[in-house]
Amino acid sequence: MMNKLHWKKILVMFFLMFFATLIVIFLRESDITQIPQSPQYREKGPDSAKIKVIEFSDFGCPACAMANKYLNEILNVYKNNIQISFKYFPLTNIHPNSFSAAMYAECAGKQEKFWEFGNVLFENQEKWLQSQESEKIFMNYAMQLKLDIQSMEKCVKDKEIEKIIKLDMSYGDLKKVDATPTFFVNNKRAVGAMQVIESIKKAIAINNI
Q1: In 3D, which of 114, 146, 148, 120 has the Cα closest to residue 39?
Q2: 80 lies in the same domain as 166
Q3: Among 84, 123, 125, 159, which one is least packed by beta carbons within 10 Å?
Q4: Domain limits for position 200
Q5: Is residue 56 within 8 Å of residue 63, measured between CB atoms?
Q6: Are residues 12 and 79 in the same domain?
Q7: How does 8-30 read in b/e, with b if 16+ C-beta sit within 10 Å?
Q8: Quick one: 127 and 69 in the same domain?
């Protein structure tokens, strides 16, 4: 009798662990829906787009700069069918100026120039990445884009902007992001420029775009 009860307990525990594992796997694959959309100024493409891309990126990352170039080209062709939602994920352990770059980009976004500022950051990585005067360089970019400089100066000192960057980073941690750029194309992970292009191509084919 005791042996039967013992085995029943073992079987119950086994099935509980099995189903718990399935639930964890399911949540890991589906929790992208729990991540809110980025502000409108950090999105490209209509909400009606069939292909939704969430991008975790670092302005100091060379691979991110390459992916940014390719995505811009793809969006020019499929601009009505693809939506990009940008999330900050600065790898500060290897790109110490990237967090500050993200803050300036966010402040530029407050003036509806996020994508323009982001493109300038990607195109000029070598100028600011290791610079001791990176913030001066960022402010020069703001001037070039004719942003309100007083508003920028006030914005980059705002602790709320820092919180916004860190919140995006926490979303990346939730999705086990450990490299940039990492994308989620209609909820499917793609790491790097080549993978995201292939994922978008597959999504285009599936949706008959």
Answers
A1: 114
A2: yes
A3: 159
A4: 40-206
A5: no
A6: no
A7: eeeeeeeeeeeeeeeeeeeeeee
A8: yes
Distance of alpha carbon 115 from alpha carbon 156, whole angstroms:
17
Per-residue pLDDT band at 6 (split at 50, 70, 90): low
pLDDT tens per residue, range 18-44: 444 444 444 444 444 467 889 999 999
Both 62 and 128 in a single domain? yes
Length of the chain counted residue by residue: 209
Smallest Cα–Cα separation from 53: which of 41, 64, 37, 40? 37
What CATH number corresponds to the domain at position 201? 3.40.30.10
Concatenated DSSP letters of 106-159: HHHHHTT-HHHHHHHHHHTHHHHTT-TTHHHHHHHHHHHTT--HHHHHHHTT-H
**What mean pLDDT comes out for the span 170-181?**
95
Residue with the two structure tokens 């085995």:
7
Element (H, E) at 98: helix 98-110
